[in-house]
Design brief:
The chain is an alpha/beta fold. The chain contains eight helices and eight strands. It has one domain: Rossmann fold (3-Layer(aba) Sandwich).
């Protein structure tokens, strides 16, 4: 175990998309980045690109659905630092947009394993390192689809996208974040959605076959804002790139 003067951040699912862009942006602030990737080769390629840009980055093989993988990740991170300032639970699975009448518990379970149990598994494992930081922050990457206010608004396209797994998994993640925030006031727990909810805009990534109208840089504005909150910043809030959004 070694200490580091740099701000330290672990980002899950950081081999591509919003996770990789968040790693790039937070690394550009001079932070030490632990780049989580469930596939070692994909993670290695992403880390090498960031390192070429001068970012202090360490690959952490991390499958959020596996206790063994998460435990090994904590061991690896502890080789480099005795505290973790920021955890970004970004890894996510979209599910297969199965209509509610056809949805099975098995299909939902697979999505929950990544989107709900994953962030809990990772947060629980990293709590001792977070608690050792002076001003720790956890950012949960959710979705407007996890907001009851958004999903029940007939003007929002998501209100007409009939599925159970993804939206309910993100709604569960939102509640889990609020409950962590209430119970652990020393750590800031906040929820980011990458889009501009009011403008029905999301960021172009593999998850949406690059149909989003925002860049990954725009998509990570909410994540970066919550990751860089000062000690007086809020806890238990839900924001997109334009500001707070309704639960
Ligand atoms: N794009 C948007 O505008 C938007 C809107 C709302 C919410 N989000 C949320 O933003 C987050 C990032 O999504 P994205 O748009 O950047 O999609 P993406 O490009 O598909 O990235 C998803 C990332 O999650 C990783 N992942 C999936 N399952 C994992 C697991 N079991 N363990 C570890 N990593 C895992 C993927 O790894 P592999 O490469 O190995 O598959 C990938 O790195 C997700 O939580 C998503 O729900 C995005």
């Amino acid at each position: 175990m070694t200490n580091t003067e740099r701000t330290t951040a672990l980002i899950t699912g950081a081999n591509k998309g919003l996770g990789r862009e968040a790693a790039r942006r937070l690394g550009a602030l001079g932070w030490k980045i632990f780049l989580g990737s469930r596939d070692e080769a994909r993670g290695q390629a992403a880390a090498a690109r960031l390192a070429e840009d001068g970012i202090d980055v360490i690959l952490i093989p991390l499958d959020v659905t596996s206790d063994a993988s998460v435990n090994e990740a904590t061991r690896l991170v502890r080789e480099h630092t005795d505290h973790l300032d920021v955890l970004v639970n970004n890894a996510g699975a979209p599910g297969n947009a199965v209509p509610p009448a056809d949805a099975t518990a098995g299909e939902i379970h697979a999505v929950y394993d990544t989107n709900v149990y994953g962030p809990v598994r990772v947060t629980h494992a990293f709590l001792p390192l977070l608690q050792a930081a002076e001003h720790p922050r956890v950012v949960m990457v959710s979705s407007g689809g996890g907001s009851f206010a958004v999903v029940t608004d007939p003007d929002q396209p998501v209100s007409k996208m009939h599925e159970l797994a993804y939206s309910s998994s993100k709604a569960a993640l939102n509640m889990i974040t609020v409950r962590y925030a209430q119970a652990l006031p020393h750590i800031k727990f906040n929820v980011a959605t990458p889009g501009e909810t009011a403008n029905h805009k999301f960021a172009a990534t593999d998850m949406n076959r690059h149909t989003g109208l925002l860049t990954v840089t725009e998509g990570t504005d909410s994540i970066v804002r919550l990751a860089t909150l000062g000690p007086d910043g809020p806890t238990g809030v839900f924001v997109d790139r334009l500001g707070p959004i309704a639960w």
